[in-house]
Amino acid sequence: MLSTPVGAPPAAATLGELRRSGHVHRSVRAELRDNLVTAMRGEQPRFPGIVGFDETVLPQVERAILAGHDIVFLGERGQGKTRLIRTLVSLLDEWSPAVAGCEINDHPYAPVCGRCRALAAERGDELAVSWRHRGERFGEKLATPDTSVGDLIGDVDPVKVAEGRTLGDPETVHYGLVPRTNRGIFSVNELPDLAERIQVSLLNVLEERDIQVRGYLLRLPLDLLLVASANPEDYTNRGRIITPLKDRFGAEVRTHYPLVLADELALIRQEAAVSWAGSPLGSPELADHLLEVVARFTRLVRDAPQVDQRSGVSARLAVAAAETVAASAVRRAALTGEETATARVVDLVSIIPAVRGKVEFDQLEEGREDEVLALLLRRAIAETFRARLAGADLTGLQDRFENDGPVETGELVPATELLRRIGPVPGLAAILGRLGVDGAESPGLAAAALELAMEGLYLNRRLAKEELPGRTVYGGS
User: What is the pLDDT of residue 279?
Assistant: First the structure.
């Protein structure tokens, strides 16, 4: 997420005032390097919002910045490449001066375009200065097959020609996105999707640090950091990237999905942030053990042999799953009159249709997608049950079914009604404690804990279960 201004820009409004303020002109790469070193020494957060890359990806990024290298991030979809690229903006100075009105953000000390050089010669220390926040010094383009050289670099502006300027006048050039991000960071997402002739247009930007527009006698030295993202499958000699362009990037950084369960959970908590502000029911309760099921399910889908491993399974799957489970709880509360929406195991089945489109299956699995996802979800619940309740004394809960018969639950059964149907359970406090739940404080969380225990007993073949549309009967035949 790009940063927003937190303070007023400096007061200098002319070149003379800027000089007297003691401002020092630095290149973008020097600026990034110096601010990174300062953040390291001060133990400040350098890449806010990035989870799971501390020991693997971020050290590579830091070395690339310190070396002044352009960077290409290689990774499957949903690994946080774009998020990581955008966090680089936080390493720029909060405010940076530019010649007022300049299309390519020339620094007042060293203007490079013809207009700004003429203004500097004419006005001297009275040259007007504007201030740009670091959030305005970032540009990005999603590479698509229809992207043109004019989009990235620039082209002749027919309107300016029609106004009477000669066709060879540099003032008739309409600058593209790259020069308009001069003295900033420019990102090309999915770089290999650019046509080869468009990739060629970036060669000068990466090596000679300038641009050339059509047949104009125009060479503009650019000061920017170029970063890109790509899928590893496409970023090979067999893919859609030209070798000279690969050669010009100083660093290739490989991203990955969260390596450990704790990072997966942290990522879900950070990203699954649907705003329920103003909702009559407030924010739904989503117990940690349910988030753990979602995280384990995501990891199982990634590793499943039935899933196409080349496309990957995005972190967005886990986020969408967690949001869907919460939404299912809100729906139940709205329809049944519950005061607080609390997610339970019965809400987990809503994950399957919600994430089906986010997974690319092997062709041999066509028609079995829901079956595969349901199996993986049951495995995730079983693993969470073993991790959370292994060794717990559940004989009291099992005895309840032997003595009092089956219990029906379902997506529209309120928590209080489910607790009433189950009745007193010996050892319930110990179950709640193992799950970190205070049942006295929230009947919904107590019901969620009991449903996990019942489902775990069923998956371990210690309790019968019958499933009907919208209903589940535990302890039935």
Answer: 76
How far is the CA of 235 from the CAs of 11, 67, 74, 107, 238, in angstroms? 46, 23, 8, 35, 8
Task: For residue 74, list its beta bridge partners.
Answer: 230, 254
**Nearest one of 335, 384, 460, 431 to 422, comparing CA atoms:** 431
User: What integer pLDDT is reported at residue 215 of this predicted model?
Assistant: 62
The pairing of beta strand 465-468 with beta strand 471-474: antiparallel
CA distances from 83 to 73, 216, 374 (A): 11, 37, 31
* pLDDT < 70: residue spans in the chain: 1-6, 158-170, 214-218, 237-239, 273-275, 277-278, 439-441, 476-477
Residue with token string 């020494």: 41
Is residue 170 within 8 A of residue 157, CB to CB? The reply is no
| pLDDT confidence of residue 113 | 87
**CA–CA–CA angle 132, 134, 135 (5° rounding):** 100
From residue 217, alpha-carbon distances to 23, 76, 170, 212 in Å are: 33, 41, 8, 8
d(CA 106, CA 102): 6
CB atoms near residue 460 (< 10 Å): 12
pTM above 0.85, yes or no: yes
Alpha-carbon distance 475 to 477, whole Å? 7
Are the C-beta atoms of residues 140 and 188 closer than 8 Å to each other?
yes
**C-alpha distances in angstroms, 39 versus 34, 147, 253?**
9, 37, 21
Which residue reads 């986020």 in tokens? 319
What is the rounded distance in angstroms from the CA atom of residue 425 to the CA atom of residue 401?
10
pLDDT at 274: 64
For residue 392, what are the contacts with CB-CB under 8 A and spacing of at least 6? 427, 430, 431, 434, 453
